[in-house]
Design a protein that fits this description.
5 helices; 133 residues; mainly alpha
């Protein structure tokens, strides 16, 4: 393998596949021998499955972070709240439960969308990013 003016020359097609394609295939979990016996179209499909799995895992980790954030917010909010103010509470149900419930009920979906918009407007108004009347 040599490099000239930013272009990599592998010397053979086999070395190109080993250095470019096989690295990705091994990330997916394909062995060296499976790689050479595999149809490139199947490799492409397996790559799509792998990318979808990575994206799903990323979303799960982000959601776990939201639960952790909620827990810390409740603890710190209650530790430093002013006397007489209402205590913070941890969410009573999973964050995604409303989403899955609305898939079956279009009217409820619309009501939730309106509530979310009201929350969004309230936050923007509080931050003074919306013109005040």
């Amino acid at each position: 393998m040599t490099m000239h003016e930013g272009i990599v020359y592998y010397g053979s097609l086999r070395r190109f596949f080993e250095n470019e394609w096989f690295i990705k295939a091994s990330d997916i979990g394909i062995t060296y021998w499976e790689f050479w016996d595999m149809n490139p179209r199947i490799l492409g499909v397996l790559n799509l499955v792998y990318e979808r799995r990575v994206k799903q895992r990323d979303q799960e980790m982000w959601q776990q972070g939201q639960y952790t954030y909620a827990a810390f917010s409740v603890v710190l909010g209650n530790a430093f709240r002013k006397k007489g103010s209402a205590p913070e509470e941890y969410p009573q149900k999973p964050f995604m439960s409303d989403y899955f419930d609305t898939l079956d009920d279009p009217e409820k979906n619309e009501r939730l969308a309106m509530l979310e918009m009201d929350k969004y407007i309230a936050v923007l108004s509080k931050e003074r990013t919306l013109p005040m009347r």
